[in-house]
Amino acid sequence: MPVFDLSQTPLRDLNQALHGLAAGANDTNFEVINPRGHHAVAVGIDSPVTVEIKGSVGYYCAGMNDGGTVTVHGSAGPGVAENMMSGAVFIEGDASQYAGATGRGGLLVIKGNAASRCGISMKGIDIVVHGSIGHMSAFMGQSGHLVVCGDAGEALGDSLYEAKLFVRGTVKSLGADCIEKTMKPKHLEKLAELLAKAGVTDVKPEEFKRYGSARKLYNFNIDNADAY
């Protein structure tokens, strides 16, 4: 297993190694030690590699991930897994602002808490947070799932499209056009699947509430012209 010590090796060397793998390469497991809060660690992965980061990271870790599995044994700064396409990212600690923003696919698991704007403009990504999330999460969420085992802050799902939100705890307030919806068997089934993938074993799908779009902001309404 290749080991990159970021206290001695430039970050550029790590990212170049992750991008330069030939098809069928044997060394697809990487370990990163002494990340020391570096920004843009393991960004742009485009093959099924596994990266274990032993410590906390800064901005944009695992951004644009497409097929890799990245685990951060610590916390992550703003923008972790931003614009992820596929694969999986696991954060053992907390995540800062806009985790999983604009994500188009894959799975992001945050085992601690997530700060504000978690999952903004999500476009197909699945996000599971073991703890709580901050305000304006899932703002303009288009598709995918956001699962929160704890509480949600203000303006959850503001201007939501068709992303599906599941919260086990309390929601401080709902954003514009976001409403509580009926939990149907198909939603319970999907929720159970996501909880299992995220390693959540101490809660049940039936303990969650579902939130989604009221679908009243999709089209221009002349009666509301003064509000635009």
What characteristics describe this protein?
228 residues; mainly beta
Lateral arrangement of strands in the main beta sheet: 1-2-3-4-5-6-7-8-9-11-10
The profile of the biggest β sheet is:
11 strands, mixed
Structural class: mainly beta
Termini gap: 56 Å
Rg value:
18 Å
- How many strands? 11
Give the oligomeric state of the chains in this entry, treating copies of one chain as homo and distinct chains as hetero: single chain
How does the overall form come out from the CA principal axes?
elongated
Q: Give the proportion of residues in helices.
A: under 10%
Unreliable residue runs: none
Mean pLDDT rating = 94
Strand content: 15-25%
Number of helical stretches of at least 4 residues: 2
The arrangement of helices and strands along the chain is EHEEEEEEEEEHE
